[in-house]
Amino acid sequence: MSSSMESVSLQNIAPGQHAAVRKAHGDMSGNWKTHLTTPRATLLETSHLKKSYHRGQVEIQVLNDVNLQIKENDWTSIVGQSGSGKSTLLHLLGTLDAPDQGAIHFEGNRIDDLPSRSRDILRNRHFGMIFQFYHLLPELNTLENVLTPLMISSGVLSYWLQKRHYTDRAKALLEHVGLGHRMKHLPRELSGGEMQRAAIARSLIAEPRVLLADEPTGNLDRKTGDDILEILRTLNRRENLTIVMVTHDDAVAGQADRIVRLAEGRVQEIT
Amino acid sequence: MYKLVLCWRYLRTRYIAIASIISVTLGVATMIVVNAVMSGFSNEMHKRLHGILSDIVVESVNINGIDDVEPMKKEIQRLVGDDLHGITTVVHVPAVLSFQYRQEYITRHVNLIGIDDKTHAAVSEFGQYLLHPNNRKQLSFALPNGGYLTHDLLADSNVRERTQLKNAGWPYRRYRVESEREYRRQIEQTKRIQPQQLTEGVPGTAAVTSGKVPTDPLSSPVEGVPLDPYSQHLEEQVFDPLHDQHTGIILGFSMASVRNRSDDGMIEDNFFCLPGDDVRVTLPSSGSPPKPIHESFTIVDFYESKMSEYDSSFAFVPLRRLQELRGMIDPVTGAAAVTSIQLKLRDGVTLSTVRDKLRARFPVDQFPVRIQTWRDMQGPLLAAVRMETTILNILLFLIIAVAGFGILATFFMIVVEKTRDVGILKSLGAPSSGIMSIFLTYGFSLGLAGSGVGMVLGLAFVANINEIAAALEWCTGHEVFDPTVYYFHKIPTIINAFTISWIVFGAILIAVMASVLPALRAARLHPVEALRYE
Questions:
Q1: Alpha helix (H) ranges present in A94-219?
Q2: What is the model's pLDDT at position B114?
Q3: Interface touch A97/B526, C-beta < 8 Å
C-alpha cells in the first residue's frame, strides 16, 4: 500500500467515531478493512519474524522465525522469561521497531515495511499502547495526557474546533477508569495504579483496533494489578477490544483467551 | 497542537533555558543601544559636515584660485539648471591669527575663509551656528551692540551661562579701550610724580622708565609709538578703536575659548577673546612667490558648530576684503579670483550625478579644479565611522552567537532529559518532524522572548541614556560622557526601525539555528531506545 493511500484511508477515520461507523467507513476507504465484517478474522499476523540486536561485536538473536496470528476481539497474552523476546515482539507488532526478516500484517496488509509517517499514523489511530512504567508526559495533567493522541492527529485549528468534543470524550474515559477526580493532577501526583489507568484512558481515546500492553501490571501491587486487569477484561468483553498483553506472570497471563509462550526467540507453545 | 502545548510547558518549567536567553537579551539590548548611539553621532557629524560644506564644491587646486570665475559660474548655472538652489564663491587660505590675552600673544593656525555675506546662506547652514541672533538671520560683519546668546543652545543644565558674552560687542570694546586708556593715564601720572622710586630695584620696569608702556599694541595706534610692528598702517592713523572697528571676523568658538569642568561639576567656557576684541591675521598674498600680508580684524561673532575640527580652525571674513588683501582682483578688468565655488542643490537631486556632469564639462586636464560632493570631501571620515559601526556590530553579534552556543548546550541537556518523553510521543504516533518542531518552536520562542525583552530593554536604555549616564557618573565618580571632549551635552541617539528589525530577526535566527542540532537529535531518537532510556 502506498503511503498516500494509507494516509487518506487512516485520516478519514476521525478519532472518536463509534466503532461501527469506523468499520463501515473502513470498508469503503481501504482494502485492509474489507474483511472486518468477517467475525474473528485475523487482525495481526507475523510470519517468519526475525530480529536481532548487536551488543558490541556480539549479535543477539532476540526473535527467530516467529509466526503468530492475533484474532480480532481476542485477548492474547505473550509470556516468557526475561530476554525471551516478548517485549521486542510487542514493539514489532506496534511498529515501534522493524524486523530484520519476515513480515507483519495488520488486517491483511503488510505494515512492517510502511514508510515512517504511515507507521506513525497507524500507531496514532489504530494501535493503543500501555507500558509497565505508564509513560505519561510529566508536564501535562491527566486530562491533557489522555488528549495527547488527539492533539497529535489534529492540526491546531481542527483541535480547537473540536476541543469540547474531545475533552468530553477524554473526561468520559477518565470517569470510566475511575479517575474523574484526578483530571487536573500531574502524573507525579498520582499513584502507580492511577497512572496506569490514565495510560489506559489515553490508549483508548483514539478508539484503536488493538491494545498493545507491555507488562501493564508489572509495576503494581497485586490488588491494583487486578483492578487494571479488570478494566482490560471489561474492554475486551464489552467493547470487543483486541488486546495483546506481554507479561512474565503466568497468573496475569491466565486472564487472556490465548497464551503464547516464547522461549529463546521462538514460539514455544500456544494455548 | 501538541507541539505548542509541550513547547509552552517546557518554557514554563525549564528555567535553565530561560537563563540561557539572558545573553540573547543582553546582546540584543547592547546592539540596539550601540547602534542608536552610533547613528546619533553619525547623524550629528553628517549634519555639521554638510552644514558647512554645501552639496558640491568646485575647488581650485591652486591657492591663487580660479582667475576669472564669472564665466565658470554662469556655465555651472546653465549645466545644473533647475537643480541648483544656491551658488556662492569662497576664498580659502591658510593663515596665522594672533591676539593678546593677559599680556601675552596667542598665535594660532587658521583656515581663513572669505565668504559672501549675501549668498553664503543659500548654500550652507553656516548662519545657524553663529552666536548673535541677527547674524543667524542675515550675516553681517559689523560689530553688534551686544545681544549675543549666552546659553549654549544644545546644552543642558550642566553648562553654565556664558556671562562673559553678555556685554560682548560694542559695550565690551568701549569698556576695554577706556580701561586701557585709563590704565595708561595712571601710569603716565605715576611716572611724572615719582619716576625714581618706581624704577629703583624693581625688575622688569625698564620699559616704564623709557616711556614705553607695555600694553596692547593693537589698541594704541595714536598715543606714543606702537610696539606692534603690524599696526603701522596708514588707516590706523585715524582709527579710533573707541568708535571704529576693523574688518569683521568670525572666529571658531574653540579658537577663542576653552571648555572646563569647574569644582562644582558645572561645565563652563572660558574665553581668551570676545566679540569686540581685535586680532591680527597674517596671510599669503596671491601670486608667486606669496608674500605675507598682515591685517587687523575685529571679532564680530563666534562660530559654534560643535565639530571640534571646524570650531578650532575656521575663521570667516568678508570675501571682497580677503580678495583685496591677497591681490586677487585684476586692477584692469576688476575680475575677482576665488578658490572655490560652492553649490547647493535642490532636495532630492542626486549629488553624484551633478558632480559627474560638472566633471565631464570641466575636465582636470583643462581646468585645474577639483569637483567633489561633500561626502567625497569627508570620505575617509565617513568611511571610518561606517567601518567602526560595522566592526562593532560584528563584535556584538558574536555575543549573541555565544548566546546561541549556550542555547545549543542547554537544548542538548533538555533533549537528553526529555528522551523518554520523545519515546512516548513517538509511541503515540508523533512524527519525527513533529518532535523536531517542538524543539525548533522552543528555540524560536526563546529567541523571540530573549530578543523581545532585549528590544524593550534596549529602547528603554536609549530613551533614558543621559539619565543612565548621569547615574553611572554618580555611582562611579567617573565621567561617562564628557561634554568637554565631545561638545555634545546629550548623548545623541537615533532609533532606526530597520536596524532594530534585523537585530531582532538575527537574534531569533541564531536561537532557532542553535536549536536545530538538538531538535534533529531528538527527532532521530529510536522510539524503543527512547522509551527504555533512564
A1: 116-125, 142-153, 156-161, 163-176, 192-204
A2: 93
A3: yes
Chain B hits for A156, CB-CB cut-off 8 Å, are 1, 4
Q: Which of B403, B390, B391, B505 is nearest to B27 (CA)?
A: B403
Burial A18-54 (b: 16+ CB within 10 A, else e): eeeebeebbeebbebbeebeeeeebbbbbbebebbee
DSSP letter for each residue of B480-525: SS-HHHHS-SS------HHHHHHHHHHHHHHHHHHHHHHHHHHHT-
pLDDT score, position A19: 41
Question: What crossing angle do the helices spanning B22-53 and B432-463 adopt, rounded to 10°?
Answer: 50
Distance from CA of A117 to the nearest CA of B (A): 6
List, in sequence order, every residue forming a beta bridge with B7; answer none if it has no partner: none
CA distances from A101 to A46, A48, A165 (A): 11, 7, 43
User: What stretches in chain B show pLDDT beneath 70?
Assistant: 154-157, 194-237, 482-488, 534
Is some CB atom of chain A closer than 8 A to the CB atom of B432?
yes
**Is the Cβ–Cβ distance between B441 and B519 less than 8 Å?**
no
| SS3 of residue A215 by DSSP | coil
- Tell me which residues of chain B, numbers 510 to 529, contact chain A at a CB-CB cutoff of 8 Å: 526-528
Q: What is the mean pLDDT of chain A?
A: 81
- Contact yes or no for B46/B379 (Cβ under 8 A): no
> B1, B15, B437: which to substitute to probe chain A, counting the most A Cβ within 10 Å?
B1
Which of A117, A121, A151 faces B2 most closely, judged by CB atoms? Answer: A151
d(CA A137, CA B21): 25
- From chain B residues 10-39, the ones with a CB under 8 A of any chain A CB are 10, 13
Q: Is B532 an interface residue toward A (CB < 8 Å)?
A: no
Whole-number pLDDT of residue A211: 92
In chain A, residues with a C-beta closer than 8 Å to the C-beta of B426 are 96, 120
In this predicted structure, the answer to whether residue A34 has a pLDDT above a threshold of 80 is: no
Identify the residue among B3, B421, B428, B439 best suited for mutation to test binding to A, counting A beta carbons within 10 A and taking the highest. Answer: B428
Q: The pTM is what?
A: 0.67
DSSP-derived 3-state class of residue B264: coil
B314-318 and A258-263: which strand pairing?
unpaired
Give the angle B510-B514-B520 at the CA atoms, nearest 5°. 135
Min CA distance, A96 vs chain B (Å)?
6
Q: What is the least distance, in Å, from the CA of A94 to any CA of chain B?
A: 8
Closest partner CB to B13 (pick from A125, A139, A160): A139
Q: Which among A97, A121, A202 has CB closest to B528? A: A97
Contacts of B534 in chain A (CB under 8 A): none
Q: Please give the pLDDT value at position A18.
A: 35
ipTM of the complex: 0.83
Dist. CA B373–CA B376, nearest whole Å: 5
Decide: B455 and B479 in contact? Cβ < 8 Å.
no
pLDDT digits (tens, 9 = 90+) for A135-173: 899 989 999 999 999 999 888 889 899 999 999 999 998
The answer for B103, left when phi > 0, alpha when psi is -120 to 50, beta otherwise, is left
DSSP characters over B336-388: B-BSEEEEEEPTT--HHHHHHHHHHHS-TTTS-EEEEEHHHHTHHHHHHHHHH
pLDDT band at A28 (very low <50, low <70, confident <90, very high): very low
Buried b (16+ CB within 10 A) or exposed e, B384-408: ebeeebeebbeebbebbbebbebbb
CB A173 within 8 A of CB A235: no
Chain A residues closer than 8 Å to B528 by CB:
91, 96-97
* CA gap A145, A135 in Å, rounded: 10
Whether the link from the prior residue into B289 is cis, omega within 30° of 0, is yes
